[in-house]
Amino acid sequence: MVSELKKKLVQQLVQDIESHPIVGVLNLQNLPAQQLQTMRSTLKTKGIKMSMTRKKLLYLALSQSKKKNVDQLSAKIKGMPALIFTKENPFALNSLIVKSKSEAPAKAGQTAPKDIVVKAGPTSFAPGPIISELAAVGIKTKVNAGKLEIIQDALVAKEGDVISSKLAETLKRLDIKPMEVGLNLVAVWEDGLVFDSKQLHIDEKEYAQNITQAATWAMNLAVEAAYPTSETTELLLQKAFREAKAVGVEYVIVNKETGDEIIARSERQALSLKREANL
C-alpha cells in the first residue's frame, strides 16, 4: 500500500512536470555528496529545481502527467536518477551542466564516458617495467634520449567500456583524467519531444567560428554580386574605384587618378624595349 507521504511526493512531482516547460532526467551515480549539494544550490539560484527520489515514484509521476510524450523519459531513467525542472531551453541547460563538471582520474569498474585515447609523444618515464605495463593496455613505446616515447595515439578504451584496474593505474601514472565529475544529464523533454544529452551538445567555439565564416562568405557574395547594404556599400565603392582605375590605366585614359600609373607603366615598357634592343 502506498503511504500518504509517497502519494504527496508523486503529486508534487506531477505538479512540477506540469508547471515547467522543460523536464530532464539526471543520473547522479558516482557524484560525491558535497558536489551534489553545491551543484543543487547553484541550480536553485538559476531557478532550476531538482527532485531526487526512488525510481518507482519517478516512473509513476511521469506516467500520471498529461503532457504529450513526457512518459518517454521513463526509458531514460538509470543509475541514481533525479528529475530536473526549468524554464531554460534544453541547450542552455545542457551547457550549464557540462560547464560545471570537473576532470577526475578513472577508477577500476567505472564506465568510460567517451573514447579514451592516449596521445603519442614523450613521457617522463625511464626504460624499465613500465614498458610492459604500457604495452599491456595497448600503448606502444620506444626509447628516445633515455626516456620512453609513445609511438602513436592509442585507443585504450571505447565509450561504454568498463575500465580495468590495470588501465586505471596506467592512466593515473600518465596523469590522464578521463572521467567527469558532475551532474549527468541523460535526456530532456520539451514540447512533446525527447532529446538525448548528445543531441544537445554544442561546441560553442566551433559554433562561433561557423557564424564568423558564414558572415565572411555572405559579405563576399554580396560584394561579388554588387548587392548594396549598409555593410557592403563602402566595399562596393572601393571595388568600383579600383576597377575603374584599372580600366583607365589599361586604355590610357589620363586623369589625376591614373596619370602617375600610366607614366610609370610607360617608363617600364620603354626600359624593357631598350633592354631587348640592346640600346
Structural account:
This protein has 279 residues and is α+β, with helices and mostly antiparallel strands. It has three domains: 4-101 and 182-202, Alpha-Beta Plaits; 116-179, Ribosomal protein L10, N-terminal fragment, domain II (Molybdopterin biosynthesis moea protein, domain 2), CATH 3.90.105; 207-276, no CATH class. It has helices at 4-19, 33-45, 55-64, 90-99, 130-136, 165-173, 204-224, 233-250, 259-276, and strands at 22-27, 49-52, 81-86, 102-104, 116-118, 121-122, 141-144, 147-150, 154-157, 179-181, 184-190, 193-196. It has a five-stranded antiparallel beta sheet, with helices on both faces. A three-stranded antiparallel beta sheet has the order 6-8-7. It has a two-stranded antiparallel ribbon with strand order 4-10. A hairpin with a 2-residue loop joins strand 11 and strand 12 (193-196). Helix 1 (4-19) crosses helix 3. The radius of gyration is 32 Å and the shape is flat. The model has no long low-confidence stretch (mean pLDDT 88).
Short précis:
This protein has 279 residues and is of the alpha+beta class.
Fold topology:
Layout: H1 4-19, E1 22-27, H2 33-45, E2 49-52, H3 55-64, E3 81-86, H4 90-99, E4 102-104, E5 116-118, E6 121-122, H5 130-136, E7 141-144, E8 147-150, E9 154-157, H6 165-173, E10 179-181, E11 184-190, E12 193-196, H7 204-224, H8 233-250, H9 259-276
Antiparallel strand pairs: 1-3, 1-11, 2-3, 4-10, 5-9, 6-8, 7-8, 11-12
Helix pairs in contact: 1-3
